[in-house]
From TrEMBL:
PANTHER family: ABC TRANSPORTER, ATP-BINDING PROTEIN
Name of a matching Pfam family: ABC_tran
Key words of the record: ATP-binding, Nucleotide-binding, Transport
Species this protein is from: Paenibacillus donghaensis
Family: Belongs to the ABC transporter superfamily.
Molecular function, one GO term: ATP hydrolysis activity
Name this polypeptide is given: ABC transporter domain-containing protein
Matches recorded under SUPFAM superfamilies: P-loop containing nucleoside triphosphate hydrolases
Domain of life: Bacteria
Every ABC transporter domain range: 6-234
InterPro entries: AAA+_ATPase, ABC_transporter-like_ATP-bd, ABC_transporter-like_CS, P-loop_NTPase
Length: 305
């Protein structure tokens, strides 16, 4: 059993009469990438701020690395790297100077660490360019570099791929996977790009209006729904007739957009294509759909209503 890095028991946060968090119970373990999912205002950032000591809970308890006392938790936070909302950067300084400031703040004396984290986030070639001239994606990269400075055993990342282009998103994913798999770093990460989160996380926690509503593993997500064959065609009635009468397939559905779907295990794809081509059916597209984190989430919260 892997070591518990963070644990919350009945954690609540109230602002006046409004609950930002209600009775949160969750555990994050060593080497785990935990995808934290919820709408804006659901409570994700509030929980991350509590972990970082920026907000104090109204009730309930939490522990970091097994420590729950106020002084011990403050000590444990030195083993955590944070990127919560927009990173705090000095716009009149360049990347190396910003990292130098955080090295002094964290008591890091190895100046070589600055070059290591800049290389890790692909900012080594920025030179003396001031942060004021950085794009949003570059600022996010620098914020991640700051979070990595102290060689954290636990990373808390709020929307770390915000503003990144596809290449940058892939690079960040590779960095986080390597940290988790090779160094056993635990990672709590939120993102509105659920397709990317599905590629990265090993476990998912869903929060809605301050309440923790469900938790599933990546394998449970994949088992939650069968993959389907999806057919786009301008000859919908003809295809439906072939599927039902000639191929004797029963579990067929048509989506609102007119796409025909059927379970992938009901027929061999090669056989299906052969029969459709034999009848000279004009196809606009055929693909396999796998269980989707975004669909799972929307279904879980009632279609977002």
């Amino acid at each position: 059993m892997s070591t518990t890095i963070f644990e919350a028991n009945g954690l609540c946060k109230k602002y006046g009469s409004a609950h930002a968090l209600q009775d949160i119970h969750m555990t994050i373990r060593q080497g785990e990438i935990y995808g934290f999912i919820g709408e804006n205002g659901a409570g994700k950032t509030t929980l991350m701020r509590i972990i970082g000591g920026l907000v104090h809970p109204s009730s309930g308890q939490f522990s970091l690395f097994g420590q729950s006392g106020a002084r011990q938790v403050n000590q444990a936070r030195r083993r955590v790297g944070f990127l919560i909302e927009m990173p705090s950067l000095y716009s009149h300084l360049d990347a190396e100077e910003n990292l130098g400031f955080y090295c002094r703040m964290y008591g890091i004396k190895q100046r070589s660490r600055i070059g290591e984290v800049l290389q890790a986030v692909s900012l080594s070639d920025t030179g003396r360019k001031r942060v004021s001239g950085y794009s949003l994606g570059m600022r996010q990269r620098l914020g991640l570099a700051i979070a990595l400075l102290n060689r954290p055993e636990f990373l808390v990342l709020d929307e770390p791929i915000n503003g990144l282009d596809p290449t940058g998103i892939m690079e960040v994913r590779q960095i986080l996977e390597q940290l988790a798999q090779e160094q056993g770093v635990a990672i709590l990460i939120s993102s509105h790009i659920l397709s990317e989160l599905q590629l990265l996380a090993s476990r998912f926690g869903f929060i809605h209006r301050g309440r923790f509503i469900q938790e599933i593993s990546a394998s449970e997500l994949m088992a939650s729904a069968k993959s389907k064959i999806c057919i786009q065609t301008g000859s919908k009635d003809t295809v439906l007739q072939i599927l039902r009468e000639q191929l004797s397939l029963a579990d067929i559905a048509v989506t609102e957009s007119g796409e025909i779907t059927l379970p992938s295990d009901s027929i061999d794809m090669e056989q299906l294509m052969s029969v459709l081509l034999e009848h000279r059916v004009r196809l606009e597209g055929v693909h396999l759909s796998a269980p989707n984190l975004e669909h799972y989430y929307m279904k879980l919260i009632g279609g977002g209503k």
